[in-house]
Amino acid sequence: MEFKSEELIERELEIALELLKNRSFSHIAGRFGISKKILKAHIRNMMQKLHTENMEGLKKIIKVKMEGEGKIF
Q1: What is the pTM of this model?
Q2: 55 in Cβ contact with 18 (< 8 Å)
């Protein structure tokens, strides 16, 4: 499955990278200057777009898709 840039917006991609680094929600929200509520909304949107229902599934999908594109974490 090809990772299409239109699947996730830029901010979601940035958040995805932080999630793969196992950063806490507080850390990620602070880094981007957003509330944890907004962060959770981004994560919910990513889960819907990538058809997964939990955080571990989200991380696996993102990692596989980014590795397929040659992106390094």
Answers
A1: 0.81
A2: no
